[in-house]
Every structure is written in C-alpha cells, then in structure tokens.
Task: structure prediction
Amino acid sequence: MGEARTICALVSLLFLVYGHGSMMTKVEATSKVHIVYLGEKQHDDPILTTNSHHDMLASVVESKEMASELMVHSYKHGFSGFAAKLTESQVQKVAQLPGVVRVIPNSFHKLQTTRSWDFLGLSSHSRVNALHNSSMGDGVIIGVFDTGIWPESKSFSDEGLGPIPSRWKGFCESGKRFKPRIHCNRKIIGARWFVDGFVADYDQPLNTSANQEFLSPRDANGHGTHTASIAAGGFVENVSYKGLGLGTVRGGAPRARLAIYKVCWNVLGGWCSAADVLKAFDEAIHDGVDVLSLSLGYPPPLFSDTDERDGIAIGSFHAVTKGITVVCSAGNAGPFSQTVLNTSPWILNVAASTIDRAFLTPITLGNNKTFLGEATFTGKEIGFRSLIYPEAKGLDLNSAGVCQSLSVNPSMVSGKVVLCFTSMTLSAVISAAEVVKEAGGVGLIVAKNPSNDFYPCADDAFPCIEVDYEIGTRILYYIRSTRFPIVKLSASKTVVGKPVSAKVAFFSSRGPNAKAPAILKPDIAAPGVSILAATSLLDRFQDDGYVMNSGTSMAAPHVAGIVALLKTIHPDWSPAAFRSALVTTGWRNHPSGFPIFSEGSPQKLANPFDFGGGIANPNGAADPGLVYDMGTSDYINYLCAMDYNSTAISSLTGQSTVCPGEESSISGVNLPSITIPNLRNSTTLTRTVTNVGASTSIYRAVIEPPFGTSVSVKPNVLVFDRKTKKLTFSVTVTTAHQVNTGYFFGSITWTDGVHSVRSPLSVRTEFLQPYTSVN
Result:
C-alpha cells in the first residue's frame, strides 16, 4: 500500500502505495452492478456453467437477449456466479432463485531494486542462496492483479528464457496500444484486462479522467508495472533514479514468468471493481498461475470472509484451495493499530519495512553545523542563501509556517530557502514546494514525523529536504538566534549498510486483526520504502522508465517473488507451508544483532503486530526445518469458529458443512503463530508441525514467555524419523495478571541445533468484571 512518490489502487479496491496516493475508500455511488454468488461450481464444463448463468438471468429479465445485454461477467472456473446490471426489483427476484447464495452490490477498492534483494540475502553474485538454488524462479508463473503493464520496459525482456511452460492455459488480449504478437513474449506470457464491472458503475467514459488510460493491458498509472517488475523483473544494469541508487535492478524471481490481470483503472488515483477482481481470480485459477500478487485492499470496517463485496477474500479462498499462494499488501494506514487489511488466514499478508539504504542530504547552517536530511536532490549545490521560517502575527505565531498552508510572497522568499513544519505527508510536501518555487524560493526544508519514508518533489533539481521534528526545531532555533540566518544545501548521496538500519515503515498498517484478533496479521514484512523499479512512461515521476515508490504495494511483490523461488525448490508445498516457512524464519534482529525497530510516535521495538514473524528471510525460508501446514479443512474450522452461517460456508467451500455443536476456538487454527486476545487464568491449544528437513531429527522447545505469564509445551521434545513426519504438541499459557492488560509478546521456538522454528506469541489478559446491579 504506498511509495517514495507513493500510490493507491481499488478492488473495488485501493492501491496500497504510500505518498502520492492512499488506500481506497468506497465509491459513493449507487451501484447498478450486482454480484450473484452461487458458490462452488457444480461441474467442470465452463460453457454449460455460463449458459446456466444466462438462463438464470433470462428467467428474471424475460429474454435471453436482455440477459446477454445485462450480463457483465460469468464466473465459471474457480467458482460459480455472475455479475449483472440489475434493478432493485430484479435483485429481489434473483435472490429467490434456487442455488443463489446471495446477491450483493458491486463495490470498489483503491490501489494502495537495486538494493532490496541484496538486503534480503539474495545477491546475484552469491552461488549459495535461494536465488541460485531455485534457478531464479524459472518455470514459476506469477499473476499480478494491478493496473496493467508497460511491456516495452527492459525489465520484461525475455532474453535467455526458455519456452513458455506447457501447462499454461492463459493468453494475451489485445486492446488500445497493446498487440499480443508484439507486446507479449516468454516473460509476459499472459495479459488480460477486466473493466466491465468498473465501467458499469462509473457511468463516465474512462478518457474523461484527468489521467490517460488504455482499454487494454497497457499500464497508464505505473503501479502495476512497478509491482510486476519487483516480483519478476529481469536484470537491467546501470539503473538509477536521477543518479541515486545506481546499480542493477531486478525482481525477486528474475526467470519467473508474468501473467498480468489489469483490474485497476487510472481514475482518481486508481480504482478496481470487486466484480472485475472476482473475474480475474476466476480466470487466473483456470490459466494455471502458481502465485498471485495483489497490492490492493478494502479499508476498515472489514467485510466478513464470506462477503463477496471483498472480492479478495472470496477469490483468494478459491485460489488457495487450488494450491495457488495469494500474497496481499497489509495496507498503508500505519502506525495506527487494528488497521491491517486482507486478514483472512489463507492470505499471506505483508507489511512494509525500510532497507539499509538512505539518500542523505547535507544541510549546513551559517553557524557551521551540518544536519543530514533525506531527499532525491540531484541538482547543483545551493550555496549559502538566506534561510527563513514564515511567522504569523496574532495568537498562533506558527500558522504561517505549516507546510500544507504555507503563507509566503515573493518579497519574502525570492532567492531564499524556506523551513516549514507538517504532520501530514506527500500532499504537504508537494504543495509547499509549489508555493516556494512560485514565489522564487530556491529550496525547502520540511520538518515532519520521524520516519524513513519521504516524498520528493517532482523537480529533483529543486531541493525538498525532509528532516524530523528534532532537527527541524534546531534549525528553527538557529533562525531565531541570528539576524541573518543562512544555509547551504548539498546534493543527495546514496548510503548503504551501516549505520543505516531497517525498520518497519511508518505508514505500514498494524495489527491486531480487527476481524479476528486471534489470527496474527501481518504475517511478515518486506522492503517497501524507496523501491526502485520499472514504471509506465506516462508516470510523471519516472526517470528513463524507472521510479522510486514506497508502500505495502511494494512489499507484497517482494514476497511474491520469494514464494516463486521457494516454489521452484519445494514444488509440492502448500500455500500454508510457504507462509509458515517465512513466518518462522523471519528476521527480528539485524545481522549485527541489533533489534529491529518500528517507526511511529515514538519509535519502538517492533512486535508481531508490526511485522508478523519479522522481515522476510528467503534463505532461511528455503530450509525451515518444520512447517505448520494447513488445508481446506483447517480453513473451514476457522470459518466455523468465526460463527459464520453454515450455508454461506458450504457455498464458499463447495461441500456441505455442518459446524460442530461445541464452540470452536480460532486460537486452535494451525497457524505458525499464537495470538491469545482474551486470556483469563489459563488456556491450552494445540499445533501440528510437519518435518520438511532431515528425515531423522530431534527438536527441543525453547520458550520466551510474555511478561507475567507462564508457558508450557507438551511434549517439549519432538522426535522425527522416516515414519514419523507429523507431530502434535499442546501449549498451555497461564497468566499471573489479575487485571485487564495490553498485549505482551514472547515466542516458542523448536530447534534441532541447525534450524530455529520460531512462532510469535502474543497474549492479552482480559478479566470480565462481575455484573453489579445498581439500585
């Protein structure tokens, strides 16, 4: 969800990019399109399924011709249903037809590198990592749901790739400025576009938007091109952004193939229709993708897991039960708690972290003190110039120096550098820069909340240097201490490694999970700040076809690329096994041993609600030792524990489901993490692990109990041999607290001396007060 310039998208979803966009908000318009959900398909003939959908609709609208005109999509591969334009009276009639689970209105979501892969331990120069052990993901097919693709980018060259996998059933679809014969190759093996659901409800031609758009897989926004190249872009040498971050850019699985599903459209920052997203899932399941990457989301309040208005939850369930790993961004509403999106337990949910790289920009004051800010300033050094901070008269002296409402004039600013303060993000930086430039200023210093994400000006020859409030305040004190304050602004420099340390990004959405607090989300974190990757040539921030973006939108395709590598090494693993491997091996500390922090107000040590199991560790995940596996039956147990309607569960899963009479426990779902949101005295739950390492091995439990609790594991030794591949253990957590508390954190780690299989443990004590009547 975000970018260095940052973005958004919709399903009816949002892009999950940070900065130049935000996560989607629901479109305020009366929907004509309705999704008629019929559950699991009844047979494998897609033609018969589609005909049955038309017949069903025709029985209500009284003619097959009218039914064809009103039909928007027929879902016939992964599940059964259709989207159609219906009046309210027709909706009531369709809802009464046999086999109809529910009819709901269409909805919308908004859209939320040269260093990041080396940071993750996947250097192309090493021959002993998961990148090379997996043949760089050769043969794996990654599907990307986004704004399409700019096919001419060098990142999508098919040089050196072999034939398209024979199992591939998809194709490339023609459209405006997109010809399959020219624009598809052995890298881009599929390119489709889905717009009917969007157009039916948007009620305006797409070309009336302020931004250009193509009725084809071609990407006018740049978001889809960026995410696709992060996941599977090929090697491109000597790429930089305005001279910064110079190096070889590539994706996580550079030999994987790409299947592009354009579901988001370049309107108001990027929007996607739930009807179109469901159709894309349906087709992707049929086409034969291995991994799906979605940098989209629906903002709180979250829909239930069985509600089709969240096209991602329903579509991803069907994909995961077919063995397709679905990777989604966590959202860009951090650092606030309970803001994480895409929380269904079958989805691999990704938070955003920074990397060990910064673009440091010296600010030298007239008193010879130098401070370091961040920017992408690549112009000539601004020699010593006058430095001002606008101050107002009256009660609020600082009102004139607020970035988003900066009040200056040419006589005050011409030829000078301006300091302003803001609690906002991208819009404040852009508006302040425009005001200062228009008034003849030569530079801008923005003081803001401390974080590593920053928002460069469109003109990188004009310095917009960002500092935290502490440095901003010291600069302000200097201005007020002398009659003629001056400042020198030097060009930005790329700094990699020490002393720069990775953190959970300020904007990354946080847990706990608002829908199901016992299901830990996010699962894992990955780089999502200032990621250099390909973009559309229509992107106004692009530099020779590449741009730096930030957001969980950038983090999700990092993990999709990692899963593609793991899929090559472990082709028989389930989506749950891939998630388990990532969660239990995630980095909680830097290589130096220093713990990872989480940006916020103030910064703090990162906990599982910030980054799940930690920052993704691809090499560790390739050899995790043990995995916590799950299948459809586990997801059904979860749905029952959520107390969803048995009919809705049966329709979703395609099998008759009767939930057990006794209350199920969500904490008992076989996740690689344990979250207990309401511990009272003591509770016991179970987990089952599968040995994927040496056939004969012995693991011992190492417990880090959360503060004020005692934790026991039985048995505390697990012995695997050639016959014993799976073992179950119980975990008992007892609290010493006698009052309601916040969350405390610990872990349970199984180790055999080689592997450390760590499960995050999050516990909150909650005692109900006895009811007392008041007379």
Remarks:
- Residues 626-630+669-765 form a domain with the Immunoglobulin-like fold (CATH 2.60.40.2310).
- Residues 68 and 104 are 20 Å apart (CA to CA).
- The first strand starts at residue 5 and ends at 6.
- The chain has four domains: 32-105, 118-355+503-622, 359-492, 626-630+669-765.
